[in-house]
Amino acid sequence: MPGHPASAFTIFRVIGKALIERLSGTSFPDTIVQAKLSVNIPSNHGREEYMPVKLRKENETLIADPLFGKSGLISLLSMADGYVRIKRESEGLTRDAWVDVTLFDEVKR
């Protein structure tokens, strides 16, 4: 696991959870919602990334606001409602794109 808190939490959610599900034979389904991205999120081609986001409603549309910061900032996790996956073949996500937001378990919308 990475040493920074936000990175360790995210990697556990992505890899650790899948491993526990596989070994235990159980499933812990994620809650995923669609939201419109409020700003561009740059990313390096060839590297999968996970960006924490804060959700808000604007005219009945769910908006995902990325929370930019370093992976050592645990405050990012306390402000985030979930995360967006940026695929490795992508060079980022563009503003107004519809994205899947994986919600943290405590958040039910």
Description:
The protein has 109 residues and is an alpha+beta fold. The chain has a domain of 74 residues: MoeA, C-terminal, domain IV (Beta-clip, Beta Barrel), CATH 2.40.340.10. 23% of the residues lie in helices and 35% in strands. The protein contains two helices and seven strands, in the order H-E-E-E-E-H-E-E-E. The longest helix is centred in the first third of the chain and has 20 residues.
Task: Please give a handful of descriptors for the protein shown.
23% helix; globular; 2 helices; alpha+beta; five-stranded mixed barrel; 35% strand; Beta-clip; 7 strands; 109 residues; two-stranded antiparallel sheet
Task: Give me a quick take on this structure.
With 109 residues, the protein is an alpha+beta fold. Helices cover 23% and strands 35% of the residues.
Mean pLDDT across every amino acid position: 88
CATH architecture of the domain at 30-103: Beta Barrel
Strand content: 25-35%
Biggest β-sheet strands, sense, barrel? 5 strands, mixed, barrel
Query: Percent range for helical residues?
Result: 10-25%
Task: Report strand order across the widest sheet.
Answer: 1-4-3-5-7
Q: What's the total helix number?
A: 2
| Quaternary structure classification | single chain
In CATH's first tier, which class of the domain at 30-103 applies? Mainly Beta
| Beta strand count | 7
Radius of gyration: 14 Å
Give the termini separation.
30 Å
Structural class: alpha+beta
Model regions low in confidence, pLDDT < 50 over at least 5 residues: none
Order of helices and strands: HEEEEHEEE
State the CATH superfamily name of the domain at 30-103. Answer: MoeA, C-terminal, domain IV
CATH topology of the domain at 30-103: Beta-clip
